[in-house]
Design a protein that fits this description.
heterodimer, A: about 120 residues, six-stranded mixed sheet, B: about 110 residues, mainly beta, globular
Amino acid sequence: AQTVTQSQPEMSVQEAETVTLSCTYDTSENNYYLFWYKQPPSRQMILVIRQEAYKQQNATENRFSVNFQKAAKSFSLKISDSQLGDTAMYFCAFSGGNAGNMLTFGGGTRLMVKP
Amino acid sequence: GAVVSQHPSWVICKSGTSVKIECRSLDFQATTMFWYRQFPKQSLMLMATSNEGSKATYEQGVEKDKFLINHASLTLSTLTVTSAHPEDSSFYICSARVSNQPQHFGDGTRLSIL
C-alpha cells in the first residue's frame, strides 16, 4: 500500500514571496505518478501540477514547480511570486500504474498568502 | 473539456432518509469513476471505485450496503447513502477517469444529516 505524508499542516507566506510545500511518499512500485491538487474554500479540486516517476526532469507550470527526488521519495511544491488567490489547501497525491488510477492523498497543507 | 458535474451540491435531510448523489461526465465517456469522502479539515479518502457495467470496488471499512454505487452508463455514476445518520454528514466528491489522464473532479456534495 502507498502512503503520502505532508508534514506541514499549515504555512503562510507574504504576497510575492516564494514558498515550498513538502511531501514524501512510500511505495514499492516503479511506475507511478505524483500530483499536487489545490482546494480553495469553494472545495473544488484543482490539479496544479503532475510528475511522471520515470521522468527525471522536474515539472513546471508557470509559477508552480516541483522538486522530485525519486530516491528520497520526496515531491515538494514550490510556489513563486505567491498571490492572494493561492490561499487554499494543497494536497499531494500518488497514483500507481497510470495517471488515471485511484489516488492516495496526503493530509494536506493549509497555505495562507498574506498581503 | 473534461467537465464533471456533481448534483446536488448541498443537501440537508432528516436522519433515516436515503440520499442519492449523481456524478456525470458531461463531454466525455468515463469508464471509471471514483467516490471520495472528506471530513472537515481532513484529506480526501477513497470510498470506492466504480466501473461502468460492473460492481463497485469498495475500500476497506466502507459499508457496501450503506453506500450503494451504481454506474449504469459511461457518463453517470450514482452514490446512494441509505438510511443516513448524522455521522454520515460529510463532503462527498466524485471524479472521472479518461484513459491514462488525471482524474477530473466534480465540485462535491455537502451532505448534512439532522
